[in-house]
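Reply to dn_fold:

You asked what the input looked like. This is it:
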Amino acid sequence: MRTASNIREHARLGLPAAKKYFTIAPAAPHALHMTSHIYLAAGMWDEVVKANEQATRVSAERAQKAGRPPGSCGHTNMWLMYGYLQEGRPDAARRVLDGCRTAAISANGLAVSSAEQDPLDPDNIPAGSYIQMWSRYIIDTEGWSDSLVREDLPLGDLTNAKLTRAFVRALAAGRRSDAVALKDALARLQDERQSLERVLAVRREGSDGYRVRAEVLEREIQALALLAENKRDEAEVLLRDAAAKEQAMPIEFGPPFVDKPAPELLGDVLLAMGRATDAAAAYESALRRAPNRAASVRGLAQARSTKEAEEFKWVVIVPRFRVGFHGLRTDLARRRHELIALQRISSLRIPSIDEPHRRSGRFAIDLDRELVHRCASAKPEHVIYG
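and this is what came back:
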């Protein structure tokens, strides 16, 4: 079941097993959570939430019986909060975040629960888990001016958490168009990356993923800094490079390992530049790695809507004529350059543009959105263009 969740095309093959597993082990928190690996890989947010709500509830009951406080940070709580955000339930997500904060600022907030646990993994330390949740909440609610951005919890020697915090603050500055804060935040991010690199340099294994993530995060912020200087081409090159590096990383389905997925950020930037077609391609790339992720879904819908509106505007300013798949009217044969343009924007293949069409006269058409959509997809027998 877990293996199926790591290959997007196989994820739905694991759904029957996930549903069965959920009923077989209703009192095993980890087993309940594990079903959500399949659901997240398929972009099924309601099921992700249901599985992790049940897992956290069972965990809390066990803790109460043992006389311990319930766990409010860590893996299952993180997945639950992410599921709420994807469902569009920020208030529910905020309650999970606030619960983890209490543990993060406690006496044990900077400590791993056992010596063998990896201190770079945010799931293993309350403060690290909180920063991971904090990052997800700010990015997925787009709360760039939220007071949370300025929150300053003690992080001790948690180099990975410090890198995450520096990245989110830099991203927020960029999205607020605060060039001065962005410049300072980029410098801080670079300092934190160097600190993380010193930690990674003495590790025997498990460094590659953290190292690539840090590189991608820095390139994203460097790109935003270039955009602030109106250096669009250079920014795009950096973002495409960051996206390529992220896409080359092994897929571990879960909340994004790169806090703001690089293809998604590329889509945001291209859409802001007015390049809806390129933005749509970037969002589609992001969704192949993170199916049904809400921010990418919204971006893709906006890009497609913008593209359709642009085509509609272009259509209405060109003199009306009808293009048949087998030719066109003699009096329109001279408009070959316009037909080539139509072919380019609609992916339409016109077998001949020289043979006269037998129909005569001009066609008056209603330029509604459905007609434009059909025109662009070249599905009807004749493409009507006006």
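The longest helix spans residues 179-201.
Hope that clears it up.
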